[in-house]
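BACKBONE GEOMETRY TOKENS:
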Amino acid sequence: MPDYDLVVVGSGFAGSAAALSFLETAEKAGRSGRVALIESGKNGTWPGASRWAKPFLALDRDNKLLRGRAGRVEWSLSSLVEYWRRLEDETPNTVKFMEDHGVKLIHHDEEDAALDFEEQHFAYTVGGGKEIVDFFLSHVANHENADVLWDHEAVNLTLDKNGERVNGIVACKPDGALRSITADTVALACGGFEGNPEMLTQYLGEDAADLPVIARGLRYNRGAGIRMAMEVGAGTTGQLGMVHAELVDTRAERYHSAIWGQNYGIVVNEDSERFRDEGEDYIFGASESLAYETWRRQNQKSYFITDKTVMDRFEGSWVYETINQPPEQSDTIGGLAGKLGLDPARLEATVGEFNAACGPGGWDPVKMDGKKTSGITPPKSNWANPIAEAPFSGFPMTAHVSFTFGGLKVDADGRVLSANEAPIPGLFAAGEITGHFHHKHPPATSVLRASTFGRIIGANAAKRLPEKAESTV
């Protein structure tokens, strides 16, 4: 007999949802099963990405999944139609699962910023990602047949004697000793590889290991799940050489001080030169592109410049007030440059050139308004409003990695697929470890996707349990 019916590696959205779904599905069906949740972080810390997330949930008012406006493709959808259809179909059930376990969603109609979603709407939780994980794990703790093994790092997957099926893991215990844990089903939900300098260097290049992480819990995401699965033949998405980066205020005194809304001004490098079309995409897409460019080609330094017109429009909004410090401000562009450490004459020249290139008419921040520049490089395709009304505002920024894009191939049931698309018996995966990708879906699907497929994996594992034998007298 195996030690557990289900072993889950990772305690974020996907892992905690898988463990909880397994326990409750088994209980409702009158079946008995044991689950172990393996977590490399210590109890009381915030390991991984989920607990640090400030999740925007791409939900409409009826808790259905919103698609994205931009139609960006980060991973081929040719073999994923069923996967996305499953996610869309199951999202309302996942939201109910969250709410049934204490998570309270706040729905928000966005009246200022042009969202990447097909509607000007999203949902969020007051307590962020930690609130979701804490609620899930508190319910897991109520079950005697659940073990949470903190400070245990998964090292290898094990196979049955014929080498045909994954039947457990080897974990490194807090004292450094190795422990073999057998299971009918293994679910990998242990994130990407933001905390692994070797993998970052291998897949992204020699300077990738120096890319700061947006939250300290990401140091626990060392790519163990991806490596272990590949060692038993798992296929990957082919996007392991990509990361999602966010622009963070360099003055920030706390983690995850991301800034958005750069599409409503200009972004310059340390030479006070614009380097990308700030208006080419919606708010999250534009920020992501500028962050990646800042890291790769601008010496990890960029500066967002805007004016009173924009700041007044967004006063009290989440767009510029997610950090804990106000922007640097001055009544002159030269004065602002001095506060940001930029050359005043150069910044004045850049702003002057930009202002002269802006077309006539008002701007509309709620949609791609087509108000563009002419005669300058790079152009600005939308929201090209002159930076003309004092006080002028600026944020010094640098790029931080928030997640890695690539991951394991899975099907619509969360089964890990080999390179030739065959399911690997006994092995499942959900969450960031399966990669992030968009195609008519916005970026704010990660929480819903992780929780949905974690929930599906746990429920299906419980349904495979044998029925309890009737007692005889």
The radius of gyration is 24 Å. The mean pLDDT is 92. The longest helix spans residues 81-100. The chain is about 25% helix and 20% strand.
